Amino acid sequence: MGTSFGRGGATQSLQDMANADCIVIQGSNMAECHPVGFQWVAEAKARGARVIHVDPRFTRTTAIADKHVPIRAGSDVVLLGALINYVLSNELWFDEYVRAYTNASYLISEDFQDTEDLNGLFSGYDPEKGGYDLSSWGYQTRPHEGASGQSPEHGEEVSDHAEGESHGSGGPPAAAEPLRDESLQDPNTVFQILKRHYRRYTPEMVREACGISEEDFDYLARSITENSGRERTTCFAYAVGWTQHTLGAQFIRTAAILQLLLGNMGRPGGGIMALRGHASIQGSTDIPTLFNLLPGYLPMPKVELQSSQEYINSIASKQQKGFWANADTYAVSLLKAWWGDAAQPENDWAYDYLPRLTGPHGTYQTLTAMLRDEVEGYFILGQNPAVGSANGRMQRMGMSHLKWLVVRDFSLIESATWWKDGPEIESGELRTEEIDTEVFFFPAATHVEKSGSFTQTQRLLQWRHQAVTPPGEAESELKFFYEFGQKIRERLADSDDPRDRPLLDLTWDYPLHDDGDPDAESVLAEINGRFLTGPDAGKPLSSYAQMKGDGSTAGGCWIYTGVYADKVNQAARRVPGKDQDEIAAEWGWAWPANRRILYNRASADPQGKPWSERKKLVWWDEEAGRWTGKDIPDFLVDRAPGTVAPEEAGGAAALDGDDPFIMQADGKGWLFAPKGMVDGPLPTHYEPQESPVRNPLYAQQPNATRELFPRWDNLSAPSEGEPGAEVYPFMFTTYRLTEQHTAGGMSRWLPYLAELQPEMFCEVSPELAAERGLEHNGWATLVSPRAAIEAKVMITERMRPLQSGGRTVHQIGLPYHWGVGGEAVVSGDAANDLMGITLDPNVHIQESKVGLCDIQPGRRPRGTELVELVKKYQQRAGLDLETGNVRVTDPQAEVEENR
C-alpha cells in the first residue's frame, strides 16, 4: 500500500493519545462519532496538549479544541503539503530520525519526472489506460549478492487490477539494494525530490485552495513543529473525512510523510490514529470482507498467478528486509487452516481452491454488473446500500435486476423494502408488480445477543460475552453461516465436480452450544493457529514467527496469532486500568503480538537510547543484550543497535539495528513510495470529481487515475470553468450524528433515539440562506446530477463561507442517516442519493465527502415531476457521459507522455 505507518490499522493505541503534546483532528468529528475514544483527547488537553480541529464544520469536537481551522472539503493535500514545505524550508525536521529511519537518502531513478515537470502528472502515465507504469519511480539500485533468478518487482506495468492492495501489509517486494547519498544533497535523493515537489505548497496557496487564512496556517504549522522532536510529539487523527475521496489514500500518505519528517512515528503520543466508524470495522479488514484481500492483508491472487510460488513471488521477496519476506508461511498456514488435510504439497496446498481476481470486484463494480443483469443473487449483511451507499437510486435499481436478495438485519431496513415503498416506487420508475426480485429477510442477533470478538479502531481485540438470548428466529452471523455452509455441503455431498471440492474440503467442524451456535472461542483458536506436527502438535501458536511454510502449522490470520496463546482467550482480559501502567497490556489483545504502538523501535535513537526520558517507550538493555521497555518491542528482541546485517541476508535476518519499520521491504519509513500507490509516489493535490474551483497548482484538474463509472444514471456535475458549472454552484458534504447510526438501521427504529434527531436536515450558512431565500426550520430542495432530495433547513454559523479560487465557496452539510421507507419510526430523503460514484484507485472507496448541487427553498416535487426536475437540471447544464470524466485535463502533459 506504500504507506509508511501501518499494517491496515492505526499506529497507536487510543489511550496513547493522552500522551500527545498536540493533536490534530482532521477528516473526523471525533467527539460526536467516536465519543468513547474522545476521552483520551480530553485527557491530553487536561494535561496541557493543544487540540486543533481542521474541518469544514464547527462541531462538538471543535467546541473543545483550542483552534478551529475551517477548510474546503477535498483540499487537504494542499494544507498537509504546505506543512511539509514549512518543515523543510524552515529546517524543522527531526534530522537524526529522518536520516536513520526514513528513505530520505535513497536515490530515485533518473528517469523519474515529477508533477512539477509534467504539470500535474508523474512519469509513466498512459492516458489510454488511465494508469501509470511505475518503473521510473523506483530506486537506483545495485543487486543483492545471490539475488539472481529472483522474480522481478511486482506492479511495474499499468494494470486494471487492484494494484494498490496487491502488496499486502508489507509493501511491495524489493529485489536490490538502494543507492544512497547520506549528505542528502544529490538532486535525485528522496529528500531533494520532496523539497522540490512541495515547494509551491505555500501559505498563500493554502489560502487560495483551502480557504484557510495565513494566520490560521501559521498557528497550525507552529503548533505541530513546536510540539515535535526529541521531547514532544504530535498525533494526527482522521476518519472517513479523509478516506472517502478520489484522493483519500494520498491524504493519509501526506500525513504519514509529515509525521516521519517530525519524528512522530513509533513514539508515545505520536503516530496517526485511524478512527474506525464501527466497533469492528478494523476486524472486517483484518479478516476481510474485501474482494482483494485475504486475512492478514495477504493479497487475493490474480488469475494469471497459476501456482502458490508465483503468487508468493508476486507479493514478497526472500531478499527483502523484514517479516513480510515470510509471506509464504502466512499463506500456507492460512490454506492449512481452511482446508486441513486436503491442503498438501502434492496439490500446492490447495492453492487452486482460492478465488482469483480478474480485475476490481468491489461494491460498485458489482452494482454495475447487477444493472447489466450479470448478477443473480446478492447478500446484504450489516449494510443498507439503499441508504448508506453512494448513488442510492442506482443501488435500488440494481437490486431490481436480481433474481434473489438476502437481507440479514435487526429490522426491515430500506434495502429490504425498496420494492414496495422506495423512492422509485413513488416516482413511478419502478412498479412492485413488475419487479422479479425475490427478497428473503433473516432477522439477525444484536451484539449483546452473541459472543465473539470486536477489533476496534486501535487494532485491539476485545471479547463480548452473550448477555441475552436473541428473540424469535434471530441468529448470530456465526450460526447462520455455519448452518448455511453445512446445508450447501450436504447438497454437494455426492458431487464429483472439481469446482465443488473447495466447499467439500473446508474444515467446517466446530463444537456447538445447546442452542446450536458454534463455540466462538473455537473459531478464535482456529484464527490464532496451532502446530500440526511435532512435539507441540495441537498446541496454539503464540507468535506469527512460529508459522512455517511446510504445512506444519495452521492459522486463519497471521496478525492475530497470539490472541489464543496458551489456550487463553487473551481478548477477554479486563484488568482495570488502575491495576496497570499506561500501556494497559492486559486489557484485551492488540495485533500484532499485543503491541500497542507499532514500529516502536523508532522511539529510541539509532544507538538504542530513548530520544528523551519524557517519551521513553522501548530501549536497548546493554547488560541483558535485548530490547525491553513499557511496550512489547516491535523489533527483533536481540538485534543490537549498530548491527549491520549480512549483505546476502533476507527477511528478518536482513534488518539492520536501525531498521525500525520491520514490515517495509527496506526497513525504512517511506517519504517517497516507489511502489504500492497507483496514483503517484508523492501525494499531489487534485480537485474532487466535482469541484467549485480550478486546481490552483496544476493544469491537471482531477486525479487522472480515479475509477470512473460514466453512465446516464451516474452523471457528474461540471467543475468550475466548464460549461454548465453555474447550474450546480454549491458544495455539499455528508457527516454523522451521535444520536443516529450510519444508515439508520440501529437508530431510526428506536423511538428514544429517533426523537432526538427526528428529521433529515441540511446545515447552511446565514449568507447562503440569504442568497437562496432559505428559512430556518423551513424546507429546502437539493438537486445534484443524480437526484433531488428535500431536507429541513438549519441556518447556522457553524457553516462558514470560504474564499477559494477567487470566489466565495458555500458548503452545505448533510447527515446521511435517513432513508425513505415505511417501517422505521422516522424516515426522510437520503443524502447519499445525491452522490455520484467515482472511486479512489488504490482502495476503491467512493468520493462521498464532496459533491456539487443546487439548493432552493421549498419541498421537492413528487411522482414523475421529481424525475423531470432532475432531468431539467441535467439539460440546463448540458450533461453527457464525458462531463467530468475526462482523465487528462492538460493537453501538453498528454503530448509529453505520448512522445
TrEMBL record:
InterPro entries xrefs: Asp_de-COase-like_dom_sf, Formate_DH_Act, MoPterin_dinucl-bd_dom, Mopterin_OxRdtase
PANTHER family: FORMATE DEHYDROGENASE-O MAJOR SUBUNIT, TUNGSTEN-CONTAINING FORMYLMETHANOFURAN DEHYDROGENASE 2 SUBUNIT B
SUPFAM superfamilies assigned to the protein according to its UniProt record, in alphabetical order: ADC-like (SSF50692), Formate dehydrogenase/DMSO reductase, domains 1-3 (SSF53706)
Membrane-spanning parts: none
Nucleus as UniProt keyword: no
Coiled coil residues, start to end: none
Oxidoreductase as UniProt keyword: yes
Top-level taxon of the source organism: Bacteria
Gene3D superfamilies on file: 2.40.40.20, 3.40.50.740, Dimethylsulfoxide Reductase, domain 2
Keywords: 4Fe-4S, Iron, Iron-sulfur, Metal-binding, Oxidoreductase
Lineage, opening ranks: Bacteria, Bacillati, Actinomycetota, Actinomycetes, Micrococcales
GO cellular component, one term: cell envelope
Domain Molybdopterin dinucleotide-binding: 730-849
Entry's Gene Ontology BP terms: anaerobic respiration
Main location: other
Family: Belongs to the prokaryotic molybdopterin-containing oxidoreductase family.
Family annotation (CDD domains): MopB_CT_Formate-Dh-Na-like
Biased composition, class Basic and acidic residues, residue ranges: 153-166
Region listing for Disordered, in residue ranges: 133-182
Gene Ontology molecular-function annotations: 4 iron, 4 sulfur cluster binding; electron transfer activity; molybdenum ion binding; molybdopterin cofactor binding; oxidoreductase activity
Localisation: Cell envelope
Protein name, as recorded: Molybdopterin-dependent oxidoreductase
Required cofactor names: [4Fe-4S] cluster
Record-annotated Molybdopterin oxidoreductase domain positions: 11-393
